[in-house]
Amino acid sequence: MIDKKAERRAQILACARNVFARRGYHAAKIDEIVEAAGVARGTFYLYFDDKRAIFAELVDRFLARLHLSIQRIDVEGDIVAQVKSNARAVITLFLQDHAMTKILLTDAPGLDAEFDRKLLAIYEEMLEYLVSSLEEGQSVGIVGPGDARIFAFLTVGAIKELLQQAVRRDFGEDRAEWLADQVYAFLSSGYLRIPPR
Known about the structure:
This protein is mainly alpha-helical and 197 residues long. Helices cover 73% and strands 0% of the residues. The protein contains 9 helices and no strands. Helix 1 crosses helix 2 and helix 1 (4-23) packs across helix 6. The longest helix is centred in the middle third of the chain and has 27 residues, at 113-139.
C-alpha cells in the first residue's frame, strides 16, 4: 500500500528542490513551491515549518547520499579500482542531480550562521575522514609525504570545482567514468603512489 503522506511529502521536496535550484534560496517563495507541487499552502505547513526547514532537509538528504557513496579504501585490494570507484560514485551522484549540486555548492553556504555551522561540521567530518585515509595511505606507502590535511583541502577543492563546472557546463551522467579517470590521473600525478599491479 502506498503511503499517501510520504508520497505527498516527497512531491513537495522534489518541487522545492527545483524551485531552489532555479531561483536560489533567497528568491524562492513558498508560494512557488506549493504551486509547483500542486498543493495548498496549508498542506506545505503540515510537512514543513518554513522554507528553511525544507531547504535543510533537502541538503541533509543529499549529504546522507553523498556519505553513503564513499567507501573506505582496503589497502589489500585493488586500490586503483577503489579510488576510481569512489570518484565515480561521487561524480555520478552530483551529475544525476544538477539541482542539488547547485543548491549544495552555491546556495547553501552563507545561508545563515546556524546553517553555516552545520555545513562546516559536515565538511569537517568529510575532511577528517579523508585526512585519516590519507594518513593511512602514507603509512603503507601509497600516499606521498606531506601534510595530509593540506592534501585533503586540495582534493576537496579540486573536486568541488570540477563538479561545479560539470554541472554548469551540463556534462551528462555518461561522462562520470571519464571524469573519474581524470580525477584519478590528477591524484596519481600528485600525492598518490600506487605501484602497478
